[in-house]
Inverse folding.
């Protein structure tokens, strides 16, 4: 590959921020089409009820109303599909009840749409939606996954007995693990809840669908992370309309955190309705709808046991999890508690026997799917809580216990990858390195002294560790296909050199906060030796970009960036042929560096721009070579990438009130090579805050009637700047051995590492004051800490 | 989150506002931070909003005839940054500084907050402890209501439907010192417990709580402990023991009644210690 002009590794300011901070972003809700209509939904106030009559007459007569559709109108249309098949332990296919575009016969969670009202203005649509009369006959409700599988629990779907979607296990046979556990000198057991999270992207979901009757073409503007996948699922699986007659555009998108990966019923319904009424239809969720209908995250009830020998080496891990999938299967819901959770339970440790058993369950709650980290935070929380608790129980220092159990360093080149007990092969890692660095930053020995002094002075200080690993760069298609994925997870990258040498890059990943327009341009400009300003990154439009699998699972640079790199290589290869012809040399004798093609060992050279112009004005040109300089590549990764790191939290407890103050947060993350350190640091910061949010502030609360009781910002507590100390970040670089940039991905690391570090710190603080508690349920409010101090 | 349709009027005088208010199902719009969200959720659907933000006589803070007068349309920010308040009523400055965020403080008004009577609002505690008088005007003329009589329960006050709060009058107490401390609900940052204490020059004390019960209240039991007693640790502890008494304490997702009662005592102790 060419030498570089040093753009890779530079904190280039984000080009996209110009439009965002000047209010010039173009979000779906900003788009108003000729003849625009607006939709509002009639949503059930009950979590589980039979639908009786629906009277739309009064609403239809209201000003501006264009159309009203109910479940009966769309009953013949397919539901939105699930993208990942998980089989029962006995080999049976998972239960996959229809997820209809509008409820038919029965509603299954509060907020499920019963009717769509379309009118000339949004106000008219809202007024008319209120006038639709729906009769409900309430049914018993179940919201808790462990309760839902018990005999006699209310049944969400007739076709899923005991509300089970599937049961599943991974790892060593249970008997082997039981046997190993029986040999343990100490077993640490933890029963805990990884609570339900609401993603809360700042931009609510928004869709604007239109139909062009003259050309038989549909266009859907959608606030999505994944435009091509939405097009594929909607056209082929839901509406049965020709894929090539559908354009899906994800314009500027204000955050997703996973919740905008999925294909939502409203997308297909609006697209269908735009054809029915032959006018564009737009809907933007209000914040209440976001709380109730954006796919939620996490919601695991887990019992985990880790056995150790008398030296503190882990000998076995046994895990039983009930995963709440909500009322219907969202697009990737089924893989989250299984292939994104169970497969990560090796962690950074050499535990020789691991068995994980998962029961996935339907309940009368909002569908649950991937939320920043998706399964990997659940796995990390489980392991890292166990590690810290085991250390406390055995009287071993939690850092020392980790050093004792770490997988030794391996680079994946000279040493092979590490084969886990749970199906993955780690690519490269230096796990002790990140913990050592974290301990240095903390000043660990000094901290323990201060902690003792504080306890003597009536103050409680605590430190919590989390050494995590994640599987990113999702994903090798053959591997995930074998595990049930119904899609490939390669990526597409096109590099189009314009006649003037300026470059347009098309990527199938989608940027909704990640800064791809900057990072990807840095990579291409660096490799082509041209100015950063001469590269533009285009994404999000299925009419411009050949294909793509969108942005999720920290995959964009590792998979999308690699696809772009393949095209860059092709550009240089062809460029050499054109340059050789111009320089009257052999292509093999040319080298490309600093934006020039040079005959090796001579001063004969030609610039990249010259070659580009020649490619488009091929008057003097190699025979048999096509004009143009434009390549598209598909890249299917050889393996996942495995970023890892060490997060350390320090908390102080107000003994009188139980109030927690997060005093320090240290994040040492190894995400492989770094393209833009500022953007990576920003990703880590955002992720850490989100993970701290789960530990201390956030969490959906359902009552026994299936009502979300904290579905507003007055009650659902998002973390704020004043809740956090300055985040202290540091990096370590262990390059990924199997992709051209050596990158691993950084989008989810902060969220995965931080949550257990904070909770462990609280537990450590309580133990330092003599309050021996194993667990406090997240979010850890002041009252929970106060109660722990009263009773323990 | 689209409200139902409504009419809008922006009167220039209190009299015009009262006239507009008595006409149909009208509601006063001050800062709007409580009303507008309720309208967007369609929890309230007034036919007309009477915007009182353009009435000059409802603005401003002054000292006259031995009283601090805060006109009802004065924003939290204006109170926060007012030197007279800072010198005379430091606990008003403290309360103003923790209400909402910058946007809320710049639009929200003290009159609006008092009229809304949210059980977790900050203002009622210092207003009660300061022995404020609330001046109101309506079609029947004007009247003055002591703060101690003003709050009648959850979101309810003595205010009649056609009445407008015009001013909050606080007697100047030379040599008095005051403090307001709030334990905030983490999401809304409203008070789970707000405790205002005014220590008079003669050592007597006014104690008021907000957030603890359905309506804010003066804690007479705790106050009485200081009558004729010196301000020492024992007196403070006795007052803390006496505080809250038979009060029916709220319980919610963020704080059970047991925990809230405990917090009220901790915050009272901290407030008293700050003035000791």
């Amino acid at each position: 590959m060419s030498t570089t002009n040093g753009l890779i590794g530079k904190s280039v300011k984000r080009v996209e921020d110009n439009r965002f901070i000047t209010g010039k972003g173009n979000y779906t809700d900003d788009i108003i089409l000729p003849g625009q209509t607006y939709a509002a939904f009639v949503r059930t106030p009950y979590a589980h009820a039979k639908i009786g009559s629906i009277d739309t007459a009064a609403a239809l007569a209201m000003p501006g109303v264009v159309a009203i559709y109910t479940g009966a109108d769309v009953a013949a249309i397919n539901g939105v599909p699930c993208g990942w098949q998980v089989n029962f332990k006995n080999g049976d296919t998972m239960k996959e009840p229809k997820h209809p575009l509008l409820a038919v016969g029965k509603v299954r969670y509060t907020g499920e749409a019963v009717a769509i009202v379309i009118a000339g203005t949004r106000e008219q649509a809202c007024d008319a939606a209120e006038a639709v009369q729906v009769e409900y006959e309430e049914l018993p409700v179940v919201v808790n996954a462990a309760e839902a599988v018990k005999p006699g629990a209310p049944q969400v779907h007739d076709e899923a007995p005991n509300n089970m979607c599937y049961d599943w296990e991974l790892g060593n046979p249970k008997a082997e693990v039981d046997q190993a556990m029986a040999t343990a000198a100490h077993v640490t057991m933890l029963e805990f809840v990884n609570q339900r999270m609401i993603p809360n992207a700042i931009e609510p979901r928004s869709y604007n669908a239109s139909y062009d009757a003259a050309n038989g073409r549909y266009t859907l503007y959608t606030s999505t992370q994944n435009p091509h996948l939405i097009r594929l699922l909607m056209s082929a699986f839901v509406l049965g309309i020709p894929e090539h007659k559908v354009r899906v555009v994800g314009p500027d998108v204000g955050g997703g955190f996973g919740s905008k990966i999925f294909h939502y019923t409203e997308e297909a319904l609006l697209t269908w309705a735009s054809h029915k009424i032959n006018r564009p239809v737009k809907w933007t969720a209000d914040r209440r709808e976001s709380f109730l209908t954006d796919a939620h995250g996490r919601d695991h009830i887990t019992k985990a046991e880790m056995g150790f020998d008398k030296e503190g080496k882990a000998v076995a891990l046994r895990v039983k999890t009930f995963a709440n999938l909500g009322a219907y299967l969202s697009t990737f819901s089924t893989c989250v508690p299984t292939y994104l959770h169970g497969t990560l339970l090796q962690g950074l440790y050499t535990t020789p026997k691991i068995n994980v058993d998962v029961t996935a369950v339907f309940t009368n709650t909002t569908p649950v799917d991937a939320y920043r980290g998706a399964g990997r935070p659940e796995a990390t929380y489980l392991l890292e809580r166990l590690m810290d608790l085991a250390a406390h129980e055995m009287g071993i220092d939690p850092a020392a216990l980790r050093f004792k159990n770490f997988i030794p360093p391996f680079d994946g080149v000279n040493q092979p990858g590490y084969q886990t007990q749970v199906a993955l092969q780690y690519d490269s890692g230096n796990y002790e390195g990140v913990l050592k660095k974290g301990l240095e930053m903390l000043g660990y020995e000094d901290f323990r002294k201060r902690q003792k002094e504080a306890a003597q002075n009536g103050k409680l200080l605590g430190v919590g560790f989390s050494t995590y690993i994640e599987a990113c760069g999702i994903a090798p298609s053959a591997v995930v296909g074998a595990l049930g994925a119904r899609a490939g997870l390669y990526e597409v990258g096109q590099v189009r050199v314009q006649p003037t040498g300026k470059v347009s890059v098309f990527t199938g990943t989608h940027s909704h906060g990640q800064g791809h327009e900057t990072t990807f341009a840095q990579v291409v400009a660096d490799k082509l030796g041209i100015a950063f300003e001469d590269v533009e990154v285009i994404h999000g439009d299925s009419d411009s970009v050949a294909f793509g699998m969108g942005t999720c699972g920290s995959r964009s640079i590792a998979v999308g960036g690699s696809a772009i790199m393949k095209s860059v290589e092709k550009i240089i290869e062809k460029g050499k042929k054109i340059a050789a012809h111009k320089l009257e040399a052999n292509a093999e004798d040319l080298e490309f560096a600093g934006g020039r093609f040079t005959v090796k060992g001579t001063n004969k050279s030609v610039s990249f721009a010259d070659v580009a112009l020649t490619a488009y004005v091929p008057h003097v040109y190699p025979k048999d070579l096509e004009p143009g300089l434009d390549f598209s590549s598909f890249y299917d990764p050889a393996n996942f990438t495995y970023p890892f790191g060490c997060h350390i939290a320090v908390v102080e407890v107000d003994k009188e009130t139980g109030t927690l103050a997060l005093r320090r947060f240290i994040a040492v993350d190894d995400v492989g090579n770094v393209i833009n350190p500022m953007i990576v640091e920003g990703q880590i910061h955002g992720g850490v805050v989100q993970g701290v949010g789960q530990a201390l502030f956030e969490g959906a609360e359902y009552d026994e009637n299936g009502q979300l009781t904290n579905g507003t910002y007055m009650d659902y507590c998002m973390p704020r700047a004043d809740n956090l100390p300055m985040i202290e970040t540091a990096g370590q670089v262990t390059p990924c051995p199997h992709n051209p940039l050596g990158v691993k991905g950084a989008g989810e690391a902060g969220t995965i590492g931080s949550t257990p570090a904070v909770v462990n710190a609280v537990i450590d603080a309580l133990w330092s004051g003599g309050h021996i508690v194993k667990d406090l349920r997240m979010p850890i409010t002041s009252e929970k800490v106060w109660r722990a101090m009263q009773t323990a | 989150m689209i409200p139902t349709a409504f009419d809008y009027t922006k009167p220039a005088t209190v009299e015009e506002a009262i006239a507009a208010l008595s006409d149909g199902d009208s509601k006063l719009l001050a800062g709007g931070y409580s009303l507008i969200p309720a309208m967007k959720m369609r929890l309230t659907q007034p036919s007309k909003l009477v915007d009182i933000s353009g009435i000059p006589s409802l603005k401003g803070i002054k000292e006259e005839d031995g009283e601090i007068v805060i006109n009802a349309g004065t924003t939290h920010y204006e109170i926060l940054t007012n030197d007279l308040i800072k010198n005379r009523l430091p606990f008003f400055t403290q309360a103003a500084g923790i209400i909402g965020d910058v946007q809320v403080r710049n639009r929200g008004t003290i009159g609006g907050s008092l009229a809304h009577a949210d059980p977790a609002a900050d203002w009622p505690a210092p207003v009660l402890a300061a022995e404020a008088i609330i001046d109101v005007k309506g079609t029947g003329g004007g009247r003055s209501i002591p703060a101690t009589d003003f709050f009648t329960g959850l979101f309810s006050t003595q205010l009649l439907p056609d009445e407008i709060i015009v001013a909050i009058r606080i007697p100047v107490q030379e040599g008095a010192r005051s403090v307001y401390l709030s334990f905030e609900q983490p999401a809304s940052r409203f008070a789970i417990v707000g405790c205002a204490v005014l220590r008079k020059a003669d050592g007597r004390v006014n104690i008021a709580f907000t957030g603890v019960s359905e309506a804010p209240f003066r804690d007479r039991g705790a106050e009485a402990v200081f009558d004729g007693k010196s301000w020492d640790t024992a007196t403070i502890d006795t007052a803390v023991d006496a505080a809250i008494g038979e009060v029916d304490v709220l319980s919610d997702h963020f704080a059970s009644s047991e925990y809230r009662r405990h917090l009220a005592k901790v915050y009272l102790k901290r407030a008293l210690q700050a003035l000791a």
Q: What stands out?
A: Residues 257-275 of chain B form the longest helix (19 residues). Chain B is about 35% helix and 25% strand. Residues 7-51 of chain B form a domain with the Uridine Diphospho-n-acetylenolpyruvylglucosamine Reductase; domain 2 fold (CATH 3.30.43.10).
